[in-house]
Design brief:
Blueprint (H helix, E strand, L loop, with lengths): L19 E6 L8 E3 L3 E14 L11 E15 L10 H8 L11 E8 L11 E13 L8 E8 L4 E2 L13 E6 L8 E7 L6 E4 L2 E2 L3 E5 L2 E5 L6 E2 L2 E5 L2 E2 L6 E2 L1
Antiparallel strand pairs: 1-2, 1-5, 3-4, 4-7, 5-6, 6-7, 6-8, 9-10, 10-14, 11-12, 11-16, 13-14, 15-18, 16-17
Length: about 250
């Protein structure tokens, strides 16, 4: 009798290497501002158990190591992309900041998350992790006509945390505003707006007044010039082709 080839349930699809993502927190652990790391490749998470010898006479001489914790690391490559200012993309600048000469102790620790990110369909809800790590950066592709690339190595500090997968698909979504700083800005002052869905933003408003000047720093950050207006309540909204964000409470000078 011929063996039967193993099959998967109906509707199964082959996964691909590029269906994975990494974000870096540009905010704080208490008020995160997650920025996807763009132009990334070769994402390689690694987890190793930490064990202790639990061998007793009952093991009759056989090893009996018990897992007590874990160590983790994450490696990937990211292309060098320059902004008009000459700076790199904000997520790369953030990674570099953790490796600067004066980045000692807590100043050297990045807040990172990584997760399943399928090209189509539903993301695996159980494949998403978050952790803190120190950063190593090496310049790669150093040939005479190569594409500029950084090789990033993250070494975990403490255990990973299993989190809900935040990836909701590649389709356009309405923006979300989570923070605006500093508070009490007057006309002409710069206000940094944090949230998501900003890459295609077409308008930034303080109450009913549109900011005539604003810069999209990344998918989660906009810097806007406070327009003229009356002091007091001026809720912040961001608009993109998909829709209008929530109105974040803000008081202007």
């Amino acid at each position: 009798m011929s063996p039967t080839a193993p099959t998967l349930p109906a509707g199964s699809a082959l996964g691909f290497s590029y269906e994975y993502g990494v974000d870096i927190n540009l905010g704080t652990p208490a008020a995160p501002n997650w920025q996807p790391i763009r132009r990334v490749s070769a994402i390689a998470p690694s987890v190793k158990p930490i064990t202790a010898d639990a061998q007793t006479y009952d093991d009759f001489g056989a090893p009996n190591d018990q897992k007590t914790s874990e160590s983790w690391s994450l490696a990937f490559s990211v292309q060098v992309n320059r902004l008009g200012s000459g700076a790199y993309a904000p997520e790369v600048e953030a990674l570099k900041a953790y490796t600067e000469p004066d980045a000692i102790g807590a100043l050297s620790i990045a807040h990172i998350r990584w997760y399943d990110k399928p090209a189509a369909g539903t993301a695996n809800p159980g494949e998403a992790y978050e952790g803190f790590a120190y950063v190593t950066i090496d310049r790669a592709n150093t040939g005479n006509a190569d594409t500029g690339t950084w090789t990033i190595a993250l070494t975990g500090q403490g255990k990973r945390t299993k989190v809900a997968n935040s990836f909701t698909g590649w389709g356009a979504v309405a923006p979300t505003v989570t923070a605006a700083t500093p508070s009490g800005a007057a006309a002409g002052a710069l206000v940094t707006i944090s949230g998501s869905g900003f890459l295609t933003a077409t308008s930034v408003k303080f109450a009913a007044v549109s900011a005539t000047v604003f810069s999209i720093i990344g998918g989660s950050t906009i810097v806007a010039v406070m327009p003229a207006g009356t002091a007091g309540s001026a809720p912040v909204t961001v608009i993109n082709p998909t829709g209008t964000s929530n109105a974040l409470a803000y008081v202007r000078a």
